[in-house]
Amino acid sequence: METTKLLGTKIRQFRKLRGITQEQLAEASDSTGSYIGKLERGEVNVQIKTLEKIAEALDTNVFAFFDFNPFKELKSQPWIWECIHILSQQSEADQNKAYRILKELFSPESELLDNNSDKPGEYGKF
Q: What is the rounded CA–CA span in Å between residue 22 and residue 36?
């Protein structure tokens, strides 16, 4: 895959993670929605100044867009890969359900966690 397409895919991933539309990203980065769409599809090149504005709007840095192996640090954590494997075998509806459960479980307001635990990864009773 060529660099412009990889870069566009990364920008789309960050935008979706932030839960904003192409139009919202365009407004925050002094661009247009159609340009962001073309950028995400790898149809246009981007100037560094524009990329910096996009990165700022997505609360990240430009270098994050060029990290094409974001999971390399997870290789030492096989349980994460097992979770991904389990989720990949589920329907999209069940994947969304699992996401909502995890999000609620680990939210700062969750009463399910015992935040007074003195050991990392040790949780209170459910």
A: 6
Q: Which residue has the tokens 């524009």?
A: 50
Query: pTM for this structure?
Result: 0.56
Q: Could you give the C-alpha distances from 2 to 7, 42, 47, 75, in angstroms and in order?
A: 9, 8, 17, 26
Segment 90-118, tens digit of pLDDT: 999 999 999 999 999 988 876 655 554 44
* Cα–Cα dist 2/42, whole Å: 8
Report DSSP letters for the chain, one per residue.
--HHHHHHHHHHHHHHHHT--HHHHHHHTT--HHHHHHHHTT-S---HHHHHHHHHHTTS-GGGGG-S-TTGGGGG-HHHHHHHHHHHTS-HHHHHHHHHHHHHHTSTT-SSS-TT-SSTT-----
Interatomic CA distance for residues 85 and 97, integer angstroms: 16
